[in-house]
Write a structure and sequence with these properties.
Number of strands: 7
CATH topology: Rossmann fold
Shape: globular
CATH class: Alpha Beta
Number of helices: 7
Helix content: 40-55%
CATH superfamily: NAD(P)-binding Rossmann-like Domain
Oligomer: single chain
Largest sheet: 7 strands, parallel
Strand order of the largest sheet: 3-2-1-4-5-6-7
Order of helices and strands: EHEHEHEHEHEHHE
Radius of gyration: 17 Å
């Protein structure tokens, strides 16, 4: 299916990277179910900016019942099932460099919070989406990852572990859902310049990445969003279970 023929759920789609993904999809004529939890003001502003093909729907994606209501609300409004999902929502987190908790003091509750946000959220949306995707014989799931578990230049233990688990989920889900015409992939960025989550990053970290990256600059949310669109498009119809790193060449493989 062309992007313009799809209704696509973007979790955490109202701000930061999610807003860039929402704008990129709207630019290509897709219908966007813009999920938010507490960012109602930003969600409504995006609807005002981008028009009627953007449908804001509130839900906490870690709550399976709330996700089921989100899907029912979206289909009631659009008359179409959600056929693509971008799992972008991020549990509260700040990339704050040396202020992060170290391995000898970090509490398990921080791991649980990140696992709920990344893995449980993706499981809930995937399970809710599968019925409509199977009915259409088509589905696209794109999970937003991070290059830190391949190159933990700053060891954010909780966040990195959750994203690594999400990659495993991506590959096992791709195996289960492939016969139904559903692909599952991951797009992993580095530090993006700049989102709400990266705003607390010390400037010297951005400088370090700039000097270490072949393109000599830090990837923007808009550049990352364009890579997400590839996996949602017809051009990626034979690609599944993959992790595409979008960080200007900093991490290889």
């Amino acid at each position: 299916m062309l992007l313009s023929e799809q209704w696509i759920l973007v979790t955490g789609g109202a701000r930061g990277l999610g807003a860039s993904i929402t704008r990129a999809l709207a630019r290509e004529g897709a219908g966007v179910v813009l999920n938010y939890n507490r960012s109602e003001k930003q969600a409504l502003a995006l609807r005002e900016e981008l028009g009627d093909r953007v449908l804001p729907v509130q839900a906490d994606i870690t709550d399976a019942a709330a996700v089921a209501r989100l899907f029912a609300t979206a289909q009631s409004h659009t008359g179409q099932p959600i056929v693509s999902v971008v799992n972008n929502a991020l549990a509260d987190f700040q990339f704050d460099g040396d202020a992060r908790p170290k391995i000898d003091s970090i509490d398990w509750s921080r791991f649980s919070q990140q696992l709920d946000g990344s893995l449980k959220g993706a499981l809930n949306t995937t399970q809710a989406a599968v019925v409509g995707m199977r009915a259409k014989g088509f589905g696209r799931i794109v999970n937003v990852g991070k290059n830190l578990f391949q190159n933990p230049v700053v060891p954010y233990h909780d966040y990195t572990a959750a994203k690594a688990a999400l990659l495993s989920f991506t590959r096992t889900a791709a195996h289960d859902l492939g016969p139904d015409g559903i692909t599952v992939n991951m797009v992993s960025g580095g530090l993006l310049h700049t989102t709400d989550a990266s705003a607390a990053t010390p400037e010297f970290v951005f400088d370090l990445i700039t000097n270490s990256t072949p393109v000599r600059r830090v990837t923007t949310p808009e550049e990352f969003a364009d890579a997400v669109l590839f996996f949602l498009s017809p051009w990626a119809r034979a690609v599944t279970g993959q992790n595409l790193i979008v960080d200007g060449g900093l991490v290889k493989g």
